[in-house]
Amino acid sequence: MAKNNPSRKMSKSAARAEGAARTKRALAEAKATKVPAPAKRLSALSAAAKVLADAGKPMRAKEMIEAASAKGLWSSPNGKTPEATLYAAIIREIAAKGKAARFRKVERGLFETTEAA
Is residue 24 part of a domain? Predict the structure, then answer.
């Protein structure tokens, strides 16, 4: 009402609503001009899946860790046994996802990528 007749004051609720609308617009504009976040690093599992897909042959967890590190896909955050951690994570994914898992166990300690990867 204050826009049509400048001599009349706006009610408190109308002023609050107008202020909220202005704030929402400002937030929307700020989000639109936000700088995109840098690309996230791959997890050890994702790096291993990529390494296996690129290699095209079955590999052991230690070989996957070395290849991922050499390609710069993933590096261990000072862990003592990253290959054991990767091995356990691959086994967990196979158990949880079954045929939808990105990995398949070929023989003891040897994994290959599935077509789903």
Answer: no
